[in-house]
Amino acid sequence: MLIAGNWKMNGGVALLDELAAIAAKAADTPQVDVAIFPPFTLIAPAVAQAGTVIIGGQDCHQVAAGAYTGSTSASMLVDAGATQVLCGHSERRAGFGETNQMVRAKAETALAAGLHVVICVGENRADRDNRRAGHVVGAQLDGSVPPSGTAETMVVAYEPAWAIGSGRTPTAAEISGMHDLIRAKLIQILGEDGACVRILYGGSVSPANAAEILGIPDVDGALVGGASLTAADFVPIITAAANVSQ
Question: What distance in Å separates the CA atoms of residue 78 and residue 44, rounded to the nearest whole number?
């Protein structure tokens, strides 16, 4: 089970106090992998006090180095101490126009730099309402998953964009159905190794619904947004994962 927190564009050094409390909980629950994806400016100081918590970057450029002002390369993330990176988060796809091809290129560059990758996929509200969610997610996987990815170096996060930050979540049956689709597609792309890639759910995960979501078959963890900004909200989600893992 992997519980990952995406801090997005939030926080300064004071937020590291929350990380300290999260790290203390992570040390007490070794059966759960815990990761935090802070803003780039906090990666190095976060690594210094993370303990067993995995620290990752929220994005990287698809080119290894060059004249790309304001961008962060995969090797820069490694140099700062990160070991993972998010690729293709829904906010990057929708707000920055990232295509499947760009996401795959970023993932391939990150893997070449020695990072593990979290490939994010998911549909928007219109796709869901028009019953195109499965088609959209399948196409994202086909276009975004790097052939060089393995169950050891890659995680897939399913995040229905319409649920993120809305307080709304798909039903358990909807989550289960989508994770089944993702599993089948990963096996199609990667062969037997696709059966072992961890699939996270992300979309308004909270202390109130974490146990139910994490108990759904083939949900291997969660990608948490707003609830990861405080230990008071994030620690109960880690606890729920530990209980499910028993």
Answer: 10
Judge whether residue 68 has pLDDT over 80.
yes
Known catalytic residue at 89? yes
The active-site residue out of 91, 98, 108, 159 is 159
CB atoms near residue 101 (< 10 Å): 11
Which range of residues forms the domain containing residue 20? 1-58
- Put simply, whether the predicted model's pTM sits higher than 0.90 gets the answer yes
Residue 163 included in any domain: yes
Write the CATH number for 97.
Answer: 3.20.20.70
Do residues 102 and 216 share a domain?
Answer: yes
* Whether 212 is catalytic: no
Residue 16: per-residue pLDDT:
97
Are residues 52 and 135 part of one domain?
Answer: no
User: Both 53 and 87 in a single domain?
Assistant: no
CA 231 to chain centroid, in Å, comes to: 18
Pick the catalytic residue from 89, 91, 123, 179.
89
- How would residue 217 be classed by pLDDT, with cut points 50, 70 and 90? very high
pLDDT band at 166 (very low <50, low <70, confident <90, very high): confident
Instruction: Give the C-alpha separation, 226 to 133, whole Å.
Output: 24
> What average pLDDT is seen over the chain?
96
